[in-house]
Structure formats: C-alpha cells, structure tokens
Amino acid sequence: MSTSSETVPDTPPVTAPSTSSKAGRGSTPGTAATPGSPVRGTRLTLTGASLGRPGATALDKVDLDIAPGEILTVVGPSGCGKSTLLRTLAGLLAPLAGGITQDGQPLTGPSADRALVFQEDALLPWRTLRANVELPLAIRGVSRSERREQARSWLERVGLGAQARQLPHRVSGGQRQRVQLARALAGRPRAVLMDEPFGALDAQTRAGMQDLLVEVLQGTGATVVFVTHDVDEALFLGDRIALLRAGGLVAVRDIPRPRERGAHDDPARVALRRDVLTSLGT
Ligand SMILES: Nc1ncnc2c1ncn2[C@@H]1O[C@H](COP(=O)(O)OP(=O)(O)OP(=O)(O)O)[C@@H](O)[C@H]1O
Ligand SMILES: [Mg+2]
Hints:
Blueprint lengths: L43 E10 L2 E11 L4 E5 L6 H9 L6 E6 L2 E2 L7 E5 L10 H11 L4 H14 L15 H14 L4 E5 L7 H15 L5 E5 L3 H7 L2 E6 L2 E7 L12 H13 L3
Parallel strand pairs: 3-8, 3-9, 6-7, 7-8
Antiparallel strand pairs: 1-2, 1-4, 4-5, 9-10
Helix pairs in contact: 2-3, 2-4, 3-4, 4-5
The chain binds adenosine-5'-triphosphate and magnesium ion.
C-alpha cells in the first residue's frame, strides 16, 4: 500500500518489448552492475542421481550435465518428474541417491544464484511492479537509488516501463509473467530455473513471451533450465532438449540453430520433432 507513493520520476514511455534495444539498454551511468552486463553462467551436474521424495522416486539414475550459459528445455508427460528435477536443481529437494554439483561443488540448498520462475503468479500483490522487481536487488544489498534505476530499466526491457507503479492486480497475466521474468533476471542469477512459466497464457501471448525471453536472455550469460509441456516451445527456446519419461531421463538432444519457430522445411528439425514426439508417446 505504501510503496505506490514513492517519488521516482517514472515517466519515460514504454519501450516495445521486442525492438532491438541491445546497444541502448545500458543506460545506468557508469555502474558495473547494469542490468545488461553478463554474469558467469553456472554448470549444474547430476551424477547417478535419484530424484523425488523419500519412498517415492520420480527419476532414477539421472546423469545430466548442464553447461554454463546454455538453455536446456525439459519436456515429458505430466507427473514424470519435471518439477522434481527443477526443484532439485534449485536446491529445494536433495537427491535421494547420487550427487548434484554446481561448478563442481556439492549443491546443498537454495541460493540467490539460482532464480526460480513458476507458472503461478508469485508477485507480492501489495507491492508495485517496480517494488517487486527491486526485491532481489534489495536482498543483494544494492543501494536504493541503484535498485530503482535497475528495476526501472528491467521493466522497460520487458515492455512495462509505463506500468512500473501499478500493483500486480492491475495488469494482465502475461504482463505479470513479464514482471516475474524481470524480477528473476534483476537479481543477476547465474541460473534461471523456469517451471512452465508460460503455461497459463494464451497462444499469442505465449509466443510473444518466448520471443521476449530469448531477447532478454541474450547477453545475460545465465544458464537456463526451462520446463514445458509444449514440444514446439521447447524446440524453439532450447539449445538442447531433455526428454523425461516416468522413471527417468530418456535422452538429451541438440537442437539445430539458428532458432526458428516451427520446423517446416529443415529436415533435421522435422526429424528431431518427430523423434521427440515419438519418445514422449504422443
Ligand atoms: N509434494 C509431493 N509429495 C510426494 N510426491 C510428490 C510431491 N510432488 C510431486 N510428487 C510426485 O512426484 C512425481 C513427479 O512429480 P512432478 O511434479 O515432478 O511431475 P511433473 O513432471 O512436474 O508433472 P506436471 O507436468 O503435471 O507438472 C509424481 O508422481 C508426483 O505424484
Ligand atoms: Mg510440474
């Protein structure tokens, strides 16, 4: 309630989410921690790891090495263990057996290094969009003026500069997801773990979010693990795609680049898409 009366001149007009603003976004004068400066992506490695809850193994003997800065997408049927995998990478669940490391060191719990984005709206409803984005910056001890500037810049990058002072319930579901993305990236995490973040959005908004995600991730350096039900979303976003089935990790495949929506012409893409759908039993 109180945050909406803050007095920062949030006047600049919105920038469109998908214009090429790569060169222009580092507008924070002379600071090392501009929103666009890259982080060192982290390596996440599971070795012979069994994942799940005690007495209920969801995924057995998973070997998976996620390289710094890559976008790994994860697909698999409902209940197969995608969220379990993500929670394990977040440090919220410990492997039942085997190991998990971050850059070669045992991963023992949650860390601000690894940001989580969920499908459900996790914004604080009583804080303005800007105040929500400022949260991880405050946790990192960034000064008040600096975090204002960075939050404003992040909101502009996701096309919500003009809405910075709104409360979450005053903007759409797609816009709230954009704020969540801005908030996750504002904390300059070395890994971003996303669990069906666009699952509740209509097809058009979703496609726009995919483009926006690609754009805002560019140059961040962060490692990304992105869980989705949607094979085409996974093939569009990923550098690699991991296929899960009840019980385990079936395969990890490289996705041809450059990134293209759909797989209409390229035989390699068509074959990959067919393989993925076949191994998912759809
Ligand atoms: N809190 C919990 N306690 C016990 N078992 C759980 C819990 N959460 C999930 N499970 C079980 O673990 C298995 C994997 O669940 P998980 O949520 O990882 O699947 P998922 O692939 O993310 O599914 P969805 O696509 O529906 O989100 C399921 O069998 C599920 O019933
Ligand atoms: Mg899930």
